Amino acid sequence: MNTVTTKDGVQIFYKDWGQGQPVVFHHGWPLSSDDWDGQMLFFLQQGYRVIGIDRRGHGRSSQVSGGHDMDHYAADAAAVIDHLDLRDAIHVGHSTGGGQVARYVARHGKGRVAKAVLVSAVPPLMLKTPNNPEGLPIEVFDGLRKALAANRAQFYLEFASGPFYGFNRPGVKPIQGTIDNWWRQGMMGAANAHYLGIKAFSETDFTEDLKTIDVPTLVMHGDDDQIVPYKDAALLSIKLLKKGALKIYPGFPHGMPATNADVINKDLLAFIRSSS
Question: Which of 76, 199, 97 shows the shortest CA–CA distance to 148?
């Protein structure tokens, strides 16, 4: 397997396919780089070099006890990118991976990043605070932790079968393979990493990261996202970005890269190929 060992001894797994301008994919919680199969195959066929990274404690990366926070996530991504010496790269992050992209580009990406994309992403801050009154209350995230600790396998099955892909909406037919693949990826990872990762994606404030990013950045979000409500995410992020572009998709769910890959892939390609 392709792995890089970080400064604190964690093995980070990555995929590296093809030649050309690199497109780096950062996955959501509690998944792995496999969640980007539809995009990695598409961009490989378009002549790009595609890289997918499994976050520490997720997928095929080390199941370690510590470092399950956004600073380590971004530094781990940087270790892979530095090892491969990727330059002029486009970084695409979904959900928690969008936060990882924001922190990586802001803190580690100087001179290496051409563009960034935040898809259904958690920035600027999910948690409700005095400065973020429209965020989600801490009880929401406490509920996720409780369900995970009680029966992670059942919780993941219900999460994928319901709100993640919008399969709980009237008239929406569940796709069993998509549900099973989500469950498979989740159960590959470590329970402790996923438990601690909830704090990382919900309580990390990316405001200063977004302000720092100086490359063209596309913000993509569905307006029926039941996991990361777009009004407190995409609509706030776009106000903080220096070179931001916003696309809101009517009726699309949180997991829209899978359920609506035809639309998402086309728009990603257009942004990557655009001159600005």
Answer: 199
Straight-line distance from the first to the last Cα atom of the chain, in angstroms, rounded to the nearest whole number = 36
Is 276 catalytic? The answer is: no
- Of the residues 61, 225, 232, 237, only one is catalytic, namely 225
Selecting among 95, 120, 161, 202, the annotated active-site residue is: 95
Based on the residue annotation, tell me whether 161 is a catalytic residue of this protein. Answer: no
pLDDT digit string, tens, across residues 75-115: 999 999 999 999 999 999 999 999 999 999 999 999 999 99
Instruction: Tell me if 50 sits within 8 A of 40, measured CB to CB.
Output: yes
Q: Active-site residue 95, yes or no?
A: yes
Q: Tell me which amino acid residue 276 is.
A: S
| pLDDT tens-digit map of 42-61 | 999 999 999 999 999 999 99
pLDDT at position 1, please?
79
Ranges of H-type helices in the chain: 37-45, 70-84, 96-107, 138-161, 176-188, 191-203, 207-212, 234-240, 256-259, 261-273
From the centroid of its chain, how far is CA 145?
19
Q: Tell me the CA distances in angstroms from 102 to 21, 43, 108, 207, one per residue in order.
A: 20, 22, 10, 9
| Beta carbons of 61 and 55 less than 8 angstroms apart | yes
Q: Is the model's pLDDT at 275 over the cut of 90?
A: no
The model's confidence at residue 276, banded by pLDDT at 50, 70 and 90, is low
Nearest to 98 by CA among 242, 210, 4, 199: 210
CA gap 144, 163 in Å, rounded: 13
Neighbouring residues of 72: CB distance < 8 A, sequence distance ≥ 6: 8, 56
Residue 98 carries which side chain, given as an amino acid letter?
G
Q: pLDDT tens across 212-237, in order?
A: 999 999 999 999 999 999 999 999 99
